[in-house]
Design brief:
The protein is mostly helical. It has 15 helices and 2 strands. It is globular and about 50 Å long. One of its GO terms (cellular component) is membrane. It is found in: Membrane.
């Protein structure tokens, strides 16, 4: 039976890839039509790319296994920034990149870095850290620890504030853009395929976790979260290859903003307690560490070569390796001895 679900998983990943391939063109047109900045363009892709997390949280809430959803939500937010930055870097190393608006791409390749607009820090990373602060305030203090119905409304307001500031800041006069009927339908098909593929990617991975007998929260942190990130990898690759490098590099923040707000609403509706507090706060600390590194790497890269350099890829990888080591060698021994709280 595991082999059957593995086949479903491969089919779902291919469906998500097909959908992601059709998003880069519409994203670029929408951004130009409405006059949004390149950094704000990541918010569009983030909404679509967050469909795996939304799907798994709806599913886990409906089945009464909210710990899978919570684990996948935290795990994907630790993994995704290192993975998407690395994906954008590799995608832009290849020749044949469409260089619309990016005439210096050959220099970027020669100097081994991904050029990113400085607005990625102020428009995406810092507001996302504010969302994490709100999430921590709602879940960590003992009197209201966990996710409750009122938290869903507060997180919705936090997301709307993030989205408005991302779209309004740096907005310019929009351009006239022509849309053919085929482009409209292909855009709709792309979003639909990404959502369907993402859902069945998560659904099949849950079945595999169950067959392997892995604890729900650990499976969510490392297996479901990893598989759920695949559609976003495809979307990031496609958008980066289309020449929209900043949008590709910032979509991961847009995804995370959705994940920690809108995608968590199903868990707030049913009420999700924090059963292993040590595992939760350690994971949340690493969730916050990744955007801090994201902002620092861009800010300190300098005006002449602003973005992600080759050494930053190794920095992100080291941070994720530290996360895995802390969970395996410090958190899990306490969990096994009953000291997880």
């Amino acid at each position: 039976m595991t082999a059957v679900w593995a086949a479903v998983l491969l089919a779902a990943v291919w469906t998500a890839y097909w959908g992601a391939e059709r998003l880069s063109g519409p994203l670029k047109k929408l951004r130009k039509q409405w006059g949004f900045s390149v950094a704000a363009g990541g918010s569009f892709l983030g909404i679509a790319a967050a469909s795996p997390e939304i799907g798994i949280n709806v599913t886990s809430a409906a089945r009464g296994v909210s710990d899978i959803g919570l684990g996948a939500m935290l795990g994907s937010n630790v993994l995704a920034i290192p993975l998407m930055v690395a994906t954008a870097y590799v995608a832009t190393r290849k020749s044949g990149l469409k260089e619309s608006g990016n005439k210096d791409h050959q220099e970027h390749r020669r100097k081994h870095y991904v050029a990113v607009d400085k607005g990625a820090v102020t428009v995406q990373a810092l507001p996302y850290l504010a969302i994490l602060a709100v999430f921590a305030l709602l879940t960590l203090p003992a009197p209201w620890r966990g996710l409750q119905p009122i938290d869903g409304w507060l997180l919705l307001l936090a997301y709307l504030a993030y989205l408005v500031q991302a779209l309004v800041r740096g907005r310019k006069q929009g351009e006239n853009v022509d849309w053919s009927r085929k482009e409209r339908w292909m855009a709709i098909a792309g979003v639909s395929a990404l959502a369907v593929g993402a859902y069945f990617t998560v659904f099949s991975s849950e079945k595999i976790i169950s067959a392997l007998g892995i604890p729900n929260v650990v499976g969510g942190l490392f297996i479901t979260a990893t598989v759920a990130a695949l559609p976003e990898v495809f979307a990031t690759w496609s958008v980066a290859r289309s020449g929209q490098v900043t949008s590709a590099s910032t979509s991961v923040i847009g995804d995370h903003a959705v994940t920690m707000t809108l995608a968590s609403i199903p868990l707030t509706i049913i009420g999700t307690p924090i059963e292993d507090f040590r595992l939760f706060w350690v994971s949340l600390a690493f969730v916050a560490l990744m955007p801090v590194l994201y902002a620092m790497f861009i800010h300190f890269s300098g005006e002449q070569a602003r973005g992600f350099h080759r050494w930053t890829i190794f920095g992100f990888a080291a941070a994720y390796a530290a996360f895995v080591a802390v969970i395996v060698f410090w958190v899990q021994p306490f969990q096994g001895s009953g000291g997880g709280a």
